[in-house]
Amino acid sequence: MVEGDVVAAEAVADDPAPVTGQPAVVVIGVGNALRRDDGAGLAVARRLGAGVNAAGAPGGAAIAVLEYEGEPLGLLELWNGARAVVLVDAIRSGAAPGTIHRVDVSRAPVPALLRGSSSTHAVGVGEAIELARELGRLPERVVVYGVEGACFDAGEGLTVEVTEGVDSLANAVMREAEGLAA
Amino acid sequence: MSEARRTRVIRTDYLARVEGEGAMYVKLDGREVAEVKLRIYEPPRFFEALLRGRAFTEAPDITARICGICPVAYQMSAVRAMEDACGVAIDAGPLRDLRRLLYCGEWIESHSLHVYMLHAPDFLGYAGAVEMARDHREIVEQGLQMKKAGNAVMALVGGREVHPINVRVGGFYRAPARAELRTLVDPLERARETALATARWAATLEFPDVQRATELLALSEPDRYPIDLGRIRSDGGLDIAPAEFDAHVVEEHVEHSNALHARIRERGTYLTGPLARYALSFAQLRPLAREAAREAGLGPVCRNPFQSIVVRAVELVQACDEALALIDGHVEPDAPAVEVIPRRSVGHGATEAPRGLLYHRYEIDDDGTILDAKIVPPTSQNQLAIEEDLRAVVEAGLDLPDEQLSLRCEQTIRNHDPCISCATHFLKLTVDRG
């Protein structure tokens, strides 16, 4: 859906000053580990974090991987100064559990399926992105991976359908992040 | 349709800008409100079950994950309850002050989120913060700046911005140094200025003329605005220790909701949260906050839930001003924590989460194993009061078009900043007009 997108080569003039020490690309797994599949984004981040630590971050310190369980407006601080961000979150849009949605929202608005979804937070992730866009606080590139969850009840552990997709999703997210960092 | 009476159904996919998801159903029989059912909150039974068999020291970490907005409240009620069980009371001194400072950070964070991002759009006529930001960028930026100041306090004292890990039974793992705390002064002074401006601005909003008679219940202390400890009092004459909460407040299971509805025994509905704290402890507000309230036109009691945005702004002034005073007077503790030795016992803890009283009770064994846990969050307690507010709002707004009535209902729920992050499903608002 975003074939042919060109990564902007230079920073826009009115971009906020880069935060010292902030890597070029931030990968953020969002969710709540104690709401079953809502922990999918965290599981992906954890998998990547382990991989990065074992092998060393590709491209030096160009990519940071974070887990985030807080309310979504806090994301504006987490990606502050980064050139690109890849978000991974569980969603509920009616698709088959385990379905992966990839949406590049760098220019286009966050689609309905990612807004007001299963987010257990005050302001949803989609709203946080749109608010940041409105305020000029969005990184140049923003890619969202949404994992269709089956169960969002209180409890530990992902459902089988979602668990089976974590490895391949983690690989896809890391390829995306490497591409954005290049 | 066999009768002249028709049923119209209004649905919204979910109730925007309330934490989490839930459902609301209003049934009208002619001009009578036949039924109001709110299903917004699932009590944290999963967490209560998860706690059983775990060590008493784990309670603050586990319960902090119940809510993404108020982890500190859960930690504080948990540590108070565990210390109570073990015969330890941190009621004064540097450790208590640090706890209050941390809690002020959470109030600032949570209230600024609600005032600016969730509640303000209702009054300014926007669907949400994103739409509001197009015309009122400065309001959103102010909210984010204040929220950041609150986060800074939580990050430094609590260890991490969300789900802080520095809190432990008995105190902290590491007490911040005085010099570290000084770094919070600048952002807090700016936040205090913004809070004062916010109270003035909130006072200019237009409020529906609503006065609710609901009994107000909050913690109370003789000489401080309630945050981290105190007796539980109400304007109906209740005055009890947290240990007596169970004896005076009953939780009843209701069919339409997974929630338990809390009532004061033999009296009924009550409301906890900013309106209750403000009414019961107006005299204990810091002078600057009391002055902000006066300037905003608030009397010593406010019974209009729509005006809770003004009360929250006053509490923002209170929290910023108190945080600065705590930093100014900070004395580094001799040790970051006191020793807490478990014993077979039951302990109770009650603190004021941003949205109201949060009660924990634990039974622990001699080795500190948790045998039983009970958690009563503010939203669980407020659910009945919110239903009664809705009933009054619907009765007063029968002639409004469905869309406007729905919006007014949503606003009525939002007035109480309900935390429904544990709700079971998306909120669907349904109005049946019989």
Structural class of chain B: alpha+beta
Proportion of beta-strand residues of chain B:
15-25%
Low-confidence segments of chain B: 1-21, 421-427
- Assign the CATH topology of chain A: Rossmann fold
Series of H and E elements of chain B: EEEHHHHHHEEHHEEEHEEEHHHEEEHHEE
Radius of gyration of chain A, in Å, reads: 15 Å
Q: Could you give the distance between the termini of chain A?
A: 21 Å
Which regions of chain A have little confidence, pLDDT < 50, spanning 5+ residues?
1-19, 53-59, 117-121
CATH secondary-structure class of chain B? Mainly Alpha
What is the CATH topology of chain B? Cytochrome-c3 Hydrogenase, chain B
Rg calc of chain B = 21 Å
Give me the secondary-structure category of chain A.
alpha/beta
> Number of folding domains of chain B?
1
Biggest chain pair contact, residues each?
A-B, 26 and 40 residues
Fourth-tier CATH superfamily name of chain B: Cytochrome-c3 Hydrogenase, chain B
Instruction: Name the overall outline of chain B.
Output: globular
In DSSP terms (H or I, runs of 4 or more residues), the helix count of chain A works out at 4
If strands are numbered along the chain, what order do they take across the biggest sheet of chain B?
Answer: 8-7-6-11
Please tell me about this protein's structure.
The complex is a heterodimer of chains A (182) and B (434). Chain A is an alpha/beta fold and 182 residues long. Chain A is globular and about 35 Å long. Helices cover 29% and strands 18% of the residues of chain A. Chain B has one domain (45-381): Cytochrome-c3 Hydrogenase, chain B. Chain B is built from 14 helices and 16 strands. A four-stranded mixed beta sheet of chain B has the order 8-7-6-11. The longest helix of chain B is centred in the N-terminal third of the chain and has 31 residues, at 94-124. The N and C termini of chain B lie close together (11 Å). Residues 1-21 and 421-427 of chain B have low confidence and may be disordered. The interface between A and B is medium-sized, with 26 and 40 residues.
